[in-house]
Amino acid sequence: MAKTTSATSVDHDLTITEFHDSASAIIDSIATVIDGKREAIQLTLTTLLAEGHLLIEDVPGVGKTMLARALARSVDCSVNRVQFTPDLLPSDITGVSVYNQAELEFRFTPGPVFANIVIGDEINRASPKTQSALLESMEEGQVSVDGKTHVLDKPFIVVATQNPVEMEGTYPLPEAQRDRFMIRISMGYPDEGAEVAMLRSRETSSPLDGLEPVVSFEQLRRMIALVRNIYVSPAVEQYAVAIAQETRRDRDLRLGASPRATLHLVRAAKARAALDGREFVIPDDIDALAVPVLGHRLIAAARVAGGGAALQASSIADVIHRIVAATPVPLGAAE
Question: Per DSSP, which regions of 257-325 are E strands?
Fold first, then answer.
């Protein structure tokens, strides 16, 4: 598929070259901890730069939490970690109002959600009620407690890990919660060489101990501002919408992509374009991100959903690939 040549000038105080250098520094920093998972690292950074939220789903022990912590260590911003358990309460995440005897008034004590990067470890081990405590913060960037609204600082990203739903002690994420995650990735097992390297590098210490921020908080905000201004042509927007609408009509899907999913697809494509050194989005960006952005939001029809969540995810990915391949690129989106 050919690349689009038209673009508008991007109004920001960071050049695309400076952006690329900073992004490469973050990726290289995380790669010192996560061996052989370059694509997962790039998708993680894509989510951060597109101001989305990331869901990392896989079996225990493959580095889900390590990836989230490596991202947090590589960027100079506030970080909080929440270990989700069955007895975790919504107020344990959002915070609670406590009566101050000296001042004779209630004072709000912020919860761990008040950070730039919030790591939610094993999010699907908490009850759906507790998981839902994140809905407002993830969508609106704020928390409402006792009738008062508290605004979260930006950038704000939730990086949540979860085990496959078939595993003991897990709850399925509600559809509304899944839809708020921009991208879902799966780590997968490392190859033989990467696993041997991991054994050697972690004999005496954790590789996280040596990680230092490679990008300042202000630099990160400038990078995000650049991504916001990446140009998306009307034809590329039409292409993204066409793919989303096809998921709502496809006979193999019971639930298609929401309008929020379309918005997330375009935002993620803008970040991917910037990471590729471009100031404009091309259809290839949409194609590459269709499965990571749409896959976790779609529900397969009964005739293709049998065999557990792993088979369902594979079937949905096949459906998305088929839809993308069959969706014509609008005239003007590629030249």
Answer: 299-300
